[in-house]
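Title: Prediction job returns without error message
Component: structure pipeline
Severity: low
Priority: P3
Assignee: unassigned

Description:
Job completed but the reporter wants confirmation the result is attached to the right record. Sequence as submitted:
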Amino acid sequence: MPRLLFLAIFAATLPVRAERMIFAVSTGSAMPMTEFHKEKLHAGLLKDFGDALARELQMDPVYLSLPRKRVESALLAGQADLLCDLRPEWLDNPSWSWTGAVFSNRMIIASRAETPVVDQLAQLSGKRIGTILGYRYPDMEAGLGKGFARDDAATDELNTGKLLSGRFDYMMSNSLYYDYQRKVHAKGQQLNPAVFTVRSFDTYCALPPHGKLEIDKVDRAIAALRKRGQMQAILDRYRPAR
């Protein structure tokens, strides 16, 4: 057999290596969105979603773990193909292409199981509310004005602990994080399943306008995952049993 023909046949039998999809992930996030082991993304909603999206696009997922302040510059420099769980107003660069909604979330006011759930913001005027240091809450500021009594903590986890220990009766949270805490926290049964929704919001994926991924293909892949129930199945892994 001629050498060139042999090499051609041999090459044809080798597995085709899929193109990589580089997913930039902020190390500043936490479960249920991300769990890191030695700075490598190990689990969480973003890992499950990224794996599912890459399979749908027939690509190999690669996760680039970066500090929050560097994820956008990685996209700009072509080091990453997409960022997810974001909104346009959360990033500085206005030129990104945005997919349709990936995750639906709610800004909520949570409480312990024995605490009455409020049905309007005015009921919280002057009450201490667990908040995150450095975060702004424009809906609360507009609704309560000077009656918005913040009690800041560095992380959601610290806030949850303060709520459960009775340091205050209400805290700001988001429904994805809070549902996960009700599922996994040792005192999760003490967290009230009923909450007050301040605002509902969706988050999306940002892509560079001339990047490797085509926005239409990514949108079709997300739609296919949702139609087959895979997005719901991913979310259900991080929520208490219905």
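Comment from assignee: result matches the submitted record. The chain has two domains: 3-103+203-236, 105-200.
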